[in-house]
Design goal:
The chain is an alpha+beta fold and 569 residues long. Helices cover 18% and strands 12% of the residues. The chain is built from nine helices and 19 strands. It has helices at 2-32, 105-118, 127-133, 148-153, 170-191, 199-202, 212-217, 279-287, 440-443, and strands spanning 63-66, 69-73, 89-93, 96-99, 231-232, 243-244, 293-294, 297-298, 368-374, 395-397, 416-418, 424-426, 435-437, 489-493, 496-501, 516-520, 536-540, 548-549, 553-555. The protein starts with a helix and ends in a 14-residue tail after the last strand. The relative contact order is 0.15.
Length: 569
Amino acid sequence: MKTNKNFIINVFLGLALLFGAASCSKKSSSKSGSSATGWKVNDKKGGFQYNNKYKKQDAAPGLVMVEGGTFTMGKVQDDVMRDWNNTANQQHVASFYMDETEVTNLMYLEYLDWTKRVFPADDVKYEKIYLGILPDTLVWRNRLGYNETYTNHYLRHPAYASYPVVGVNWIQAVEFSKWRTERVNENALEKAGYLEKDAKILKVTAEKTFNTEAYLNSPSKAFGEDNKTIVLRGPKNSKSKDIKVAGTKGQPATTKSPTGVYAQRTSGILLPEYRLPTEAEWEYAAAADVGQRYYNTFKGQKKYPWSGSYTRSGKRQTKGDQLANFKQSKGDYGGIAGWSDDGADITNIVKSYPPNDFGLYDMAGNVAEWVADVYRPMVDDEVSDFNYFRGNEYEKNKLDNKGKAIIITDVKDVKYEILTNGKIIARSLPGQITQTPVDDNETYLRQNFDKSYEVNYRDGDKQSTNDFGNAGVIPTNDSKGMYNSPIHNVTVAAGVVIKKDKDVTNTRTTLVNDKVRVYKGGSWRDRAYWMDPAQRRYFPQDMATDYIGFRCAMSKVGPKADKKKRARN
């Protein structure tokens, strides 16, 4: 017994010494500085500055975290349309954030208001910028229906503030996402003290708008040439006082500038960009198999974003209530008045129905939603089964002859896109860095990508065309190519549309091209069939409807999950 007692005491003493040594080692390591060089990190005198107290990415405004994982993409219970365009394949999606609800009229109105204040629509120089982002309210009109109330009131009336925005084409949704990124990062920098307080309201003009990438590239020009809005500040452990920049090269010779003067990516303050979710992300988030998990597998494929095969609630408190807003049958968009219906004639207020197991609302019904992908009848899982996405167009910053990034400072340098319906949309704004396609300098000897435009990779080439092998002819878009959709032409002179030519050729065999995008989910106009998360449809990216809206996503940086998980024992 005595021997055993001594043995136990020795074991405890040994463990105590071991943990104490580890603790001392950790302390001495942090005091000694960098594990690479031994230099002190975040030294007040200067040197390498880094946010070594960063914990995790905070959810940006409106977003909830969706933990990534594997799932069966494209698996449907029914294919009554006989499209056969959603062949099941196994995919893995990395963790990301997604809007809790669809983008609402109120959210989009804030975008319109900011744009109109900064780029006044009554100034001929800027009118196309504002007009280009306006939703198409005429989508509500019907040849044999009276919907003028929605045409005139749906977007702006307070009664519809929390309804999902519609009449927005895919390009407008992308531009909204870019704008949202800048406003959120601008606000984050102001809160952290890197931007002058209220500069985002009081100092912003058409020539002085904040852009995240421009700030990172050249902080002193983040508001055009107005350097007084950029605040120099040292790291949080520095005793130096904040001072303002008078010019691009810092302070007068008599003033000593503090260290770590600008926020960088290493600061951990700036968030990744808002964007449209990929098709794989959207489908994964909508299916929310996390609610069906059982050890390292799941119990079964859900037909809808909720458990069960029915559209009505089976819970005791809400039994019989509809779980989504959709068209129940011909002429039945909401049910019989006074009874338990879906509560909506057209769209409905977001959060009117229960969320799915990821905490996302309206992933079925209300409005269908744009996703980032270019449409193709099948997903090429032979090439990629991780974060699948078709639609990559790689660009880089355009440099001047001195090697500096070119920042747009004049509205004359704004890049506009002329849509096939004649609408003109600004694809760049003052304050942004001019972009140009990547070239051989980036693609030379690379194995993972070989050009800037990868939209039709392994698709639409010679081998995949209908007449491959016929006399070795390489098809064009006007012959028998796989995707020879109609080509509509718009003639523009001096920014004014002067002619529209509709393609009426009767030899076209498809509506698919590189400018049609996938949209997912059912809407208030659709039957329950389309609420299956795996169902997919496509629509031209420059057209809008009264039943397609969108929500934003954001990539998650760092670990897959915020908390470590263990297998059940």
